[in-house]
Amino acid sequence: ETLVTVQISVKSNVKDIAKSLSRRHRTQVPFAASRALNDVAFSARKESNLQTNKVFKGGAVAFTRRAFKYKKSHKTRLFSEVFVGADHSYMAYQIEGGTRFPDSKFVRVNTTHTKLNKYGNVTRGRMQQMINNKDKYFTGTPKGMPDAGDGIWERYGRKTKSGGQRIRMVASFQEKASYRAKFPFEKIVQGVVENPVTGFSARFRKHLDAAVRSAR
Q1: DSSP string, 129-176
Q2: C-alpha to C-alpha distance for 110 and 113, rounded to whole angstroms
Q3: How far apart are CA 189 and CA 30, in angstroms?
Q4: Cβ contacts of residue 76 below 8 Å, gap of 6+?
Q5: Model pTM?
């Protein structure tokens, strides 16, 4: 399953170029076009993964830097694809924005008191540590505070004479979470395809010249 896909199709461009070629050389066009498409799809996949480290504050974790994949073209199928697979479903919200609904009971949302790592995230291991540390954290809604919200709460500061402590929410449990589009996936792919030096046109000419020479 793919979640967000950018398709690279150049049929119209190839037809225009083919018109200027001899009939003999025209037979090499599909092969050269397919090779060029695969080149730019590979480059677009690589560039998209590299850009995650620049777009997201603090960089991206190694897993996110492998979010983008590509599908090759064929000389009878002149388009290739760069996409985000189902194993990186969270990236769809970074690319398109939208509302995320929980897979189970709730969506966990960070608060101003959430301690984030350098990538701006809370790892699953860190979250599990908080849940397991019953002395310092508790989950749910604080007693006597029905409007405080459901989530993970941290006890902090000095204990009072009665043994109580101040509390603050470090993770909120929500029915849904809204995201704004942040990662310019389509623009990144388009930039690779249209690059005058390393984009499709340059690569197509290179592969076509090589195919014509080998066909002599």
Answers
A1: HHHH-TTTEEEE--TT-TTS-SEEEEEES---TTS--EEEEEEEEES-
A2: 8
A3: 22
A4: 30
A5: 0.75
